[in-house]
């Protein structure tokens, strides 16, 4: 994948996160307990997206991995992270030579262990991590009698939301 592909995938990720949050808001009145747990997972998704971008940019971690948050907090963080990832990827796309996706990023995980990963591997991880947890949220919502968001990639493409 190149940066153009990642721009497209992160646009989808943002759309899917927003759809999920919208469904959680609608279902909150049905089951507040299930909603709170789902909100915690969504806060984790968004916090992890921020953490990985901070690692790539060699910035200090600014949020816990499992933060406390409201739906409104998550909406704001989803907007912030979408803008930040789009900005980062757009900058990456203009760099010459275009080998930045293969560059190594040195970081410490949440246990303090040192690691090194390629930028493109980190980007794929962020996308898959988000999809994994959105799936958990959907399962949790459905088990509580709440209709989860329909976030299939092919659906968003068919609707023309992601080019």
Task: Describe the structure in your own words.
- Helices cover 65% and strands 6% of the residues.
- It has 163 residues and is mainly alpha-helical.
- Helix 2 runs parallel beside helix 3.
- The mean pLDDT is 91.
Helix and strand layout, with pairings?
Blueprint lengths: L2 H25 L4 H25 L14 H24 L9 E5 L5 E5 H25 L9 H7 L4
Antiparallel strand pairs: 1-2
Helix pairs in contact: 1-2, 1-3, 1-4, 2-3, 2-4
Shape: globular
Radius of gyration, whole Å: 16 Å
Instruction: Give the full name of the CATH homologous superfamily.
Output: dinb family like domain
The overall average pLDDT, rounded, is 91
The helix/strand class is: mainly alpha
How many β-strands, per DSSP? 2
Strand order of the largest sheet: 1-2
What name is given to the CATH topology? Four Helix Bundle (Hemerythrin (Met), subunit A)
Q: From the 3D coordinates, which CATH architecture would you assign?
A: Up-down Bundle
Strand content bin? 5-15%
Distance between the termini: 16 Å
State the low-pLDDT regions, or none: none
Number of helices: 5
CATH secondary-structure class:
Mainly Alpha
For the report, how would you describe the main beta sheet?
Answer: 2 strands, antiparallel
In N-to-C order, the SSE pattern is HHHEEHH
